Amino acid sequence: MKNYSSLDAFWMPFTPNRSFKANPRIVSRTEGVYCYTDKGQQILDATAGLWCVNAGHGRKEIAEAIGKQALELDYTSPFSFGHDIGFEFAERLIKHTPDPLNKVFFANSGSEAVESALKIALAYQSARGKHGKFKLIGREMAYHGVNFGGISVGGLTPNRKGFGPLLQVDHLPHTLDIEKNAFSRGLPEHDLEGAEALEDLIKFHDASSIAAVIIEPVSGAGGVIMPPQGYLKRLREICTAHDILLIFDEVITGWGRLGSAFAATEFDVVPDMIVSAKGITNGIVPLGAVFVADAIHDTIMDAAPEGGVEFYHGYTYSANPVACAAGLATLDIYEQEGLLERASGEIGQYWEDALHGLQDLEQVIDVRNYGLIGAVQFAQPEGTATPVGGAMQLKCYELGVMIRAMGNIIAFSPPLTIQPEEIDQLVAAIRAAVAELY
Ligand SMILES: Cc1ncc(COP(=O)(O)O)c(C=O)c1O
Predict the structure, then answer these.
(1) How confident is the model at residue 356 (pLDDT cuts 50, 70, 90)?
(2) Which CATH superfamily is domain 17-58+341-437 in?
(3) Which fold does the domain 63-339 belong to in CATH?
(4) Is there a cis peptide before residue 100, judged by omega within 30 degrees of 0?
(5) Cα Rg for the chain, rounded, in angstroms?
(6) Is 115 in the pocket of ligand 1 (CB under 6 A)?
(7) Beta carbon of 222 within 6 Å of any ligand 1 atom
């Protein structure tokens, strides 16, 4: 139902507003792996919203939990007061995190959770008297949300430029190397040098000035870039050797996307903190969280005078009761339906085979996949400087499939409930879009 007279008032985020408003794409209903437009068209949601609706749309259990919580306890201050559901949710969450990440700091989004993790890293270094350790290392092509800390460590130029002086950071090289690794299935073989580059940055800045390294185990918004085999383990070794914290931003890789609860579990590499959001509530209510190693938490606690606030940071809506209720109901679904592991089973193999089947298209220069995440990269079309991703996204939508576009890359991260025939539908739409566009 349309209760507005124009599209003018809503300034849309990360959207070409003028062209969208000239040709709007309005979703009016969602169910399972599908969205339905205001014109009644059924669209396969091959991106799980924005990498977040991992259990699929329209989950009644979550909606009911939200309604019940809002009627029972809608809101109370999280500053110096508590509510049961916040403690219950934190305890349930850490059943899924690797030991020793047993403390949860709540925020309201991935961006805020990233900021919280960076501030925890700095607070930890200063709590143990290492006041000079304040620099942060991110990575090229990384996306860590849109707040100032996140864009400082982030590596996507359009998101950084034009926002003035950022934090004191440096960046690792990204690990996309199509020449050596094109069409790798799962993790590519080459480029451990990308991890060794951390040693060079440490030599340059000196470990005594570096607080933390933050990376996405698999880069999402930068174009679905996989870590080469052994890369994450090597980063862990280097960070440990130089007394530098390692933060995994698992806003998209968390909650079953790669076939385990977290990339940390999947790749058997334990960072000092994990940043989470999106799938933590199935995307239905905003919530972010940082999972923090006990020792970091305890150091910050012990450094503060007894009875005083130990960490001057938090949000009005940290551990919002309704968000916690959504999160608990989401965990029930993940656990009961085995969704956190589903991507590592037959459906993950089907996904890999289906996407790699697109290799025969001459315009395709790479296919990347892991778990239920994937991307196809196209050659830059001749005779134009405009990348093809945007046009592919629009064409696929016309053909009934929602995908993400980043330059010449199209990316997919469907609900973890997706079935083989729906994967076939995605691949068929990509083929049809290529046939129409080239
Ligand atoms: C890896 C990563 N970190 C942080 C964020 C920011 O999350 P939010 O948009 O909830 O602030 C995103 C969002 O896509 C992300 O992919």
Answers:
(1) very high
(2) Aspartate Aminotransferase, domain 1 (3.90.1150.10)
(3) Aspartate Aminotransferase; domain 2 (3.40.640)
(4) yes
(5) 22
(6) no
(7) no
